[in-house]
Amino acid sequence: MRKRTPAALAGTLALGLALGLGSASAAAAGTAGSLDPTFGHGGVVLTNLNGGAGDAALQANGDIVVAGGFGLARYLPNGTLDTSFGVRGLAQLPAAIGLGDFGPALAVQPDGKYVWAGATASTEDANAAFGAVRFNANGTVDQTFGTGGVATTSFPNSGVQGADTVLVQPDGKILLGGEIFPDINHAPPEGALARFNANGTVDQTFGTGGVATTSFPNSSVQGADTALVQPDGKILLGGEVLPNVNHAPPEGALARFDANGTPDQAFGHGGQVLSTAAVGEITALGLDAAGDIFVLPAHAEFTAEGQPDATVTPAPITTSSHGEGATFLASGGYVLATSPAVAKHDDDIQVQRFNADGTVAATSPAFDYSGATGFDQALDSAHGVAVQPNGQIVVDGGHFAGGSSPIGLARVNGNGS
Asked: Using CA atoms, how far apart are residues 64 and 72, in angstroms rounded to an integer?
């Protein structure tokens, strides 16, 4: 589960706070690893919408759309807000939606509409149900979707629940992935999927009443962070589990469902795979032409049947999902954005590009603080990373400043293709 600070529209927009850079990132304009000076102020944009960015999408025209606890913000290629979108560049969520501890996640439909996903709020709980909101391309709420633009569904016998990932299937149906906490003493959370029809009604043909879950045995913590629909319609869910063993590290977890939401019994063990090779959560998934599965950030490989492959064989990626701090390139390479602590109370956003074989790319952004290009501010955090067609890398996240956490965007020069 991706923890996010509950966020609300926090007053006047404040753009363009220039950030001080570490020594290695003071490279000349255009040099791989330097911030792009044509973007925002010195390569960085801060927007005073408390809660930071949870997900982002790049559009064909170069616009950048960011999802946060407030709703959506759309930026022009130069980093300024697109005032033709919503109200002065911002599209606010309906009151029925509350961020809670889940999401936000973002998907863009082929028709240009945007789907925001997270949790709906009730009077008792900010995480009462899976929720999705659809916005028109101009930033208005799509009133033809669900009820007043909002689609919700809840899992039976579960309290806290919400979505951390969303995707639009080729048939227009909308799939949300996340987790639920059963109303049973000491029961671990479960990975969960919910599917809506294109009009926002619950897809009753999926799972049981539109929802499906997976629970890994002998595990105390479980979460779903990313999902992918395979070309054959099967659904792959990636996340992590924490085994019920003292000091055991978290393990990467995969679950696969048939297109109708039933577990794929031909995958792994009863539709599930645990891997010590993928230590920690799986936040991005990739498939090659043969159906082999690649996962990030640990960069491990599995066969189409879910068997671990001891050696990662470089291959072009034909289908992929992005996730927190990780994205695949079509070549099979990948980009990671992390937020390691470089000193007490001081984190730094770091970006690095890898080849398909897992080696650091020769044109990867230059290193700073034993990582890559970063902007040196207290408690900065990277949530998402994406690569533009020209190879520039866009990172979204948060920047802690005086008790608030504005949206942070940075664009890094470098051959990310």
From this structure: 10
User: Is 339 part of a structural domain of the chain?
Assistant: yes
CA atoms 119, 121, 127, 129: torsion sign? negative
Which residue segment(s) compose the domain that 59 sits in?
1-64+325-417
382-392 pLDDT, tens digit per residue, is 788 999 998 89
Question: What 3-state class would DSSP assign to 370?
Answer: coil
For tokens 């960011």, name the residue: 66
Q: Round to whole Å and give the CA distance between 266 and 40.
A: 49
On whether the CB atoms of residues 411 and 35 are closer than 8 A, the answer is yes
- Give the pLDDT confidence of 21-46 residue by residue, as tens digits: 333 333 334 677 778 899 998 888 88
Tell me the DSSP string of 296-311: ETTTEEE-TTS-EESS
Q: Which two tokens stand for residue 60?
A: 């064909």
Residue 410 lies in a domain: yes
Residue 222 tokens read as 């479980």
The number of folded domains in the chain is 1
Q: Which residues contact 217 (CB under 8 A, 6 or more apart)?
A: none
255 in a domain, yes or no?
Answer: no
Asked if 238 and 252 count as a contact pair (C-beta separation under 8 A), the reply is yes
Do residues 19 and 31 lie in contact, with contact meaning Cβ atoms separated by under 8 Å? no
Task: Provide the token pair at 301.
Answer: 């490989």
Other CB atoms closer than 10 Å to residue 199's CB: what's the count?
Answer: 14
The CA radius of gyration of the chain, in Å to the nearest whole number, is: 20
Does the residue 136 lie in any domain? Answer: no
Position with higher pLDDT, 267 vs 251: 267
Lookup: tokens for 347: 């984190």
